[in-house]
Amino acid sequence: MESEEFISRIKEYKKEMFLLAVSIVKNYHDAEDAVAETMLRAYEKIHTLDDKEYFKFWIMQILVNNARMILRKNKRVVCTEEMDRYMLGNSECISDVWETVLALEDELRTIVVLYYYQGFKISEIANVLDLPEGTIKSRLSRARKNLRELLN
To answer: What is the DSSP letter of 90?
Structure first.
């Protein structure tokens, strides 16, 4: 993959990458760091990508790993106000659904973001998170149940 194509693909997925990173690290600055680190690592390792068709899943897997590493390093308290302001363009109206998604435990929240916000299939999420499809399905089901309870 040429540099121009890499840059084009990164631009195409940057918002999705940021949304996924925020859902894991829960603050704007760490999410930006995770995305930046992902872009750097992906560029360095682009030669390991065998099929360009899998670029999105490959880059998201790198992002998940980087975000988790940052989370482990920092173990920070959630900064939801800052994130909400950024995600909603400083709007006073905070999305109840997004706020509820953020309230989910980490393992459920990541799956919800990948499935509903990024349109990944169950099999693709399983590949990105390196988990069995059955685990993804059960966690997605549990997340839906929790969301229904929290929204009612």
So the answer is: T
Residue 10's CB is within 10 A of a number of other CB atoms, namely: 17
pTM: 0.59
- Classify domain 1-92 by CATH number: 1.10.1740.10
Give me the residue spans of the domains in the chain: 1-92, 95-152
Nearest to 81 by CA among 92, 70, 67, 72: 92
Residue 137: how many other CB atoms lie within 10 Å = 14
pLDDT tens digits in sequence order for the chain, 152 residues long: 788 888 999 999 999 899 889 888 888 888 999 999 999 999 889 888 888 888 998 999 999 989 888 877 766 444 444 555 555 554 443 466 777 788 888 889 888 888 887 788 899 889 888 899 999 999 999 998 988 887 77
Q: What is the CATH number of domain 95-152?
A: 1.10.10.10
- Fold identical between 1-92 and 95-152? no
AA letter at 20: L
